[in-house]
Fold this protein.
Amino acid sequence: MAKNESKKQRNKIEYIECDCHHELIQLEYDKEDDTLYLSFYSYGKYDNTKGIFFMDKLKHIWQIIKKGHPYSDSICLNKIERNKLKSYLKKL
């Protein structure tokens, strides 16, 4: 690994947005830890013509100030749990 390479550059990150445009899941695979992190974001009401409402933006900022991170919840999956998730998704 290069000295100047950031953690985000080393990790694979994917975003999956809810159909309602109110929430999304961030999937981040950390090669060093061999762990998949799923973070759940809620960014409030969304209007296709106006984007995210101002008060919802403030709530999101407050979440970062209050908890130190922008997501509402997260889970970590090791290789065994990732395989369970893969198996389930393949059945759909």
Notes: Helices lie at 7-10, 54-67, 79-91. The first helix runs from residue 7 to 10. The longest strand covers residues 23-30. The CA atoms of residues 64 and 70 lie 5 Å apart.
